[in-house]
Amino acid sequence: MNAPWTPARAGQREPFVAFVCDESTAEAIRPIAVEMGWSAEKVNKGGLRNAVQTLSVSASPNILFVDLSESGDPLNDINALAEVCEPGTVVIAAGQVNDVRLYRDLVASGIQDYLLKPLNPDMLRESFSQALALLNAPRTTEASTERPHCGIGVIGARGGVGASTLATSLAWLISGKGNRTTALLDLDVHFGTGALALDLEPGRGLTDAIENPSRIDGLFIERAMVRASDRLAVLSAEAPIHSPIVTDGAAFYQLQEELKTAFEATVVDLPRAMLVNHPHLVSDIQIAVLVTELTLAAARDTIRLLAWFKSNAPQARLVVVANRVQASAQIEISRKDFEGSIERKVDFVVPFEPKQAAQAAKLGKPLAEAAKGVKSLQPIADLAQHLLDTIDEGAGEAPPKGKKKLLGSGKADAGGAEKGGSLLGKLTGLTAKFPGKAKK
């Protein structure tokens, strides 16, 4: 793998280099390269294999054309090419396989365009022109400096409370409703559903980042993120369950740092086990959405997590959401008793709507999108609006006139209801066991 790109090395970079498998492809490219002001001598034979070998010992160009015709596994070979390409290189690939899924997978892996052979002058001109426009366009980081970045962590107090479903909907609403460039970072490396919920292939970006933290930079983020829309991108994984992830958490922290410069908001689907193993991941979280359910076990774990955040992330504004709440006759603990046990109010209550959840899964859409107009699920949109208002307040922007404040301070020591109910007998004294818990 090449050394990191530096201004000194930038001067050594060629504007354009091509690696092709046959003479007919070379003959198609040379005259167009000359039209673009590039040297025809930079069209080399050897295809992708020669490209990897050559670029492993020399600076990569601004625009790189690679022929995949002789590649038996194009996706894997493109990943090998990414190892030797320096930040800033725009990659255009060509091949003989006419397959939409391959095209999507290649673009998701980070290439700019995939051209079907045989090549014609018009398609080459268009692709090269787009590559030049991309090189000359303002970087995403420049656009995102208008508003400060906000990190939002979504944590489930218990497994199965719907934290991942809520995280996906919040990312979708913040990017669309809030008109903010948003990254959804799903840190459940083996069983994450961030990409699945949006009907996307997760790619290898997250696992590659964990295995090679030194690769993480702005260009890596551009290539690894899977686009769900113009303003929403996802970084998720489906790592093999026979391959445990061994990491000190440096890759996760570095990812968050890079996402801060590339996006205006990051929604982190943060498994609670991550809090134990990598507590530093919450150091840049401004808002923590704690998703829970109205059960005895969830009350216990909500108390523990509230205390944990007070000790480890005092800067985070806490929002407690009771999710998948069923009819009062079916819930284990009433809302009043639950609030009494955790010594603060539940900020939002989202009812259990299995039909809408099933429809969202079938359509491959976030629940907030699939259930648009369903009044019972309005609390999800209200929660997203509260997060947007909190972000604006933190940035010093006044909320729109006439907008009601949805919540109080959202801090861990928010007031709670009085205790009551025999079901809470087992919870007596929990606050004493966890001295970090705020007192009323």
Question: Layout of SSEs?
Answer:
Elements: H1 7-10, E1 16-20, H2 23-35, E2 43-45, H3 47-55, E3 63-67, H4 74-84, E4 90-95, H5 100-109, E5 113-116, H6 121-136, H7 140-144, E6 150-156, H8 163-176, E7 182-186, H9 205-211, H10 218-224, E8 226-227, E9 232-235, H11 250-262, E10 265-269, H12 272-277, E11 287-292, H13 296-312, E12 317-325, H14 335-342, E13 348-351, H15 354-363, H16 367-370, H17 378-394, H18 430-433
Parallel strand pairs: 1-2, 1-3, 3-4, 4-5, 6-10, 6-11, 7-9, 7-10, 11-12, 12-13
Antiparallel strand pairs: 8-9
Helix pairs in contact: 3-4, 4-5, 8-17
Overview of the structural elements:
The relative contact order is 0.10. The strands form 2 sheets. Strands 8-9-7-10-6-11-12-13 form an 8-stranded mixed β-sheet, with helices on both faces. A 5-stranded parallel β-sheet has the order 2-1-3-4-5, with helices on both faces. It has 2 domains: 7-137, 3-Layer(aba) Sandwich (Rossmann fold); 143-433, 3-Layer(aba) Sandwich (Rossmann fold). The protein has 18 helices and 13 strands. It has helices at 7-10, 23-35, 47-55, 74-84, 100-109, 121-136, 140-144, 163-176, 205-211, 218-224, 250-262, 272-277, 296-312, 335-342, 354-363, 367-370, 378-394, 430-433; strands spanning 16-20, 43-45, 63-67, 90-95, 113-116, 150-156, 182-186, 226-227, 232-235, 265-269, 287-292, 317-325, 348-351. The model is unreliable at 1-11, 139-145, 398-426 and 428-440 (pLDDT under 50). By secondary structure, the chain is an alpha/beta fold. Helices cover 40% and strands 15% of the residues.
